[in-house]
Amino acid sequence: YSGRVIAADGDEVAYMERTFLRTTSDDYAEKLMVVKHDYLDIEPLYQGQGLAKRVLRDSMSMYKRLGVDRINLDAGLDRGGYAWAKYGFTPTQSNWDALRRRLAMDYHVSGGGEGLVGLSASGRKAMDDILTYDNPKALWTLSDIPDEVSYGGVSDKLGVHLLSGTGWSGSLSLSDVTAMRRFNRYTGAEQ
């Protein structure tokens, strides 16, 4: 489905597209209801006000009522590679392996963090560890590093700096307790 999000004053504040489908698990053992987040666009005037969190929190409530098992997406555009990790989404294993190679290259281009002004010793240690982790959930750790760094005259959180402009395919399983706890904490949803 596709739809516009309309504010109380009648202004269109966002547009989203979703695709619902029935599929089977990788081992064909069970049937799954999957929703694909195809597109979400928040009007610039309304960005940074928590609207995406509210839309996703309300969507999750509907997904649970409908019996959705998993949400798939392609993280990209400007900050999608960073933002979706904050919500608890993880890349597929092959996407994580490719992303990790890119992160390693970008991180090492900056001198292993030495060229990133503001990166703490603990941030550097966390980044070194992340690059060795096979588990795609390591992306969450990167998105959570609080260090604001400056590189090439641009300042932002380390995760934003390294993940902006990246793209990956991934998902959030509604039965993954850890991922859902992260989603609920980030969106402010009740447990």
* Main sheet properties: 6 strands, mixed
Write down the secondary-structure element order: EEEHEHEHHHEEHEH
Alpha-beta classification: alpha+beta
| Amino- and carboxy-terminal Cα gap | 27 Å
Rounded to an integer in angstroms, the radius of gyration calculated over CA atoms is 18 Å
How much strand content do the residues show?
A: 25-35%
Work out the oligomeric state of the chains in this entry: single chain
Strands of the largest sheet, in order across it?
1-2-3-4-8-5
The rough form would be described as globular
Mean pLDDT: 89
Provide an overview of this structure.
- The chain is of the alpha+beta class.
- Helix content is 39%, strand content 27%.
- It has helices at residues 51-66, 80-86, 93-109, 121-130, 138-144, 158-163, 177-187, and strands at 2-6, 12-24, 31-42, 70-75, 90-91, 148-151, 154-157, 168-173.
- The chain has a 6-stranded mixed sheet. The chain has a two-stranded antiparallel sheet with strand order 6-7.
- It is globular and about 50 Å long.
Question: Which SSEs are present, and which pair or pack?
Answer:
Elements: E1 2-6, E2 12-24, E3 31-42, H1 51-66, E4 70-75, H2 80-86, E5 90-91, H3 93-109, H4 121-130, H5 138-144, E6 148-151, E7 154-157, H6 158-163, E8 168-173, H7 177-187
Parallel strand pairs: 3-4
Antiparallel strand pairs: 1-2, 2-3, 4-8, 5-8, 6-7
State the main characteristics:
single chain; 191 residues; alpha+beta; two-stranded antiparallel sheet; 7 helices; 8 strands; globular
